[in-house]
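Exercise 7b. Backbone tokens:
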């Protein structure tokens, strides 16, 4: 009958469609490598976002302390012109200029904006890493190189959306898991020294605003002593 012949004609196309979904050789290994790379980038940029945020808060706090102390010290000079010695007026002018320069410099560096951009960037990379992980776990459908390449292209595009993380951000998370044959470090001892150096550099830059708080405190000491006297 005519419907039997139609059914027989459609059978080859159905079988052909079933054989189209074939897993590419090496696609899962390729996916595993790219997943590891995306995960490490996400963790490193998460550290970078945290580092930039800490510096933003540190400098904001230091500028508030400087502005408050210089304003209060200026009021104190109106009461006692010799509170800071014979050159007290000059000292206040120099400190005011210094506060202006620091505020303009930190505004130009834009720690807050960079921290926010880095946060959004690492969240996008995290989503891609999760998609790669889910793709590698699925067994109901094959993994193809085209599917992996699509995720890799998205990953590469997200990388260009913001600045790169520093080596210190990377070593802070993965120095203990890097292989001994890492091309940039000949031994684990060298890797440890590099990690310590990078972390010390990042820590020094981040803690510097807190060190400058010595100046506001030094300005307030004579004022408080004069009030109590």
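Sequence design result:
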């Amino acid at each position: 009958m005519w419907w039997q012949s139609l059914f027989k004609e459609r059978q080859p196309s159905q079988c052909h469609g079933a054989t189209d979904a074939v897993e590419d050789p090496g696609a899962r290994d390729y996916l595993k490598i790219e997943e590891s790379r995306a995960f490490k980038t996400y963790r490193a940029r998460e550290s970078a976002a945290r580092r930039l945020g800490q510096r933003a808060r540190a400098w904001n706090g230091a500028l508030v302390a400087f502005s408050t102390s210089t304003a209060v010290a200026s009021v104190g000079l109106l009461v006692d012109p010799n509170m800071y010695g014979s050159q007290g007026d000059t000292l206040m002018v120099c400190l005011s200029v210094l506060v202006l320069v620091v505020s303009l410099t930190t505004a130009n560096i834009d720690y807050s904006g960079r921290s926010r951009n880095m946060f959004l960037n690492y969240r996008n990379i995290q989503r891609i890493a999760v998609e790669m992980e889910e793709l590698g776990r699925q067994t109901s459908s094959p993994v193809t190189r085209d599917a992996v390449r699509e995720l890799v292209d998205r990953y590469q595009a997200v990388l260009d959306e913001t600045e790169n993380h520093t080596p210190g951000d990377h070593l802070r998370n993965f120095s203990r898991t890097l292989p001994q044959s890492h091309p940039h470090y000949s031994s684990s001892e060298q890797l440890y020294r590099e990690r310590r150096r990078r972390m010390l550099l990042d820590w020094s830059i981040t803690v510097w605003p807190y060190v400058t708080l010595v100046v506001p405190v030094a300005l307030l000491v004579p004022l408080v002593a004069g009030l109590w006297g």
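Instructor comment: Helices lie at 2-20, 27-79, 88-109, 111-137, 145-159, 167-174, 188-211, 214-228. The CA atoms of residues 169 and 211 lie 23 Å apart.
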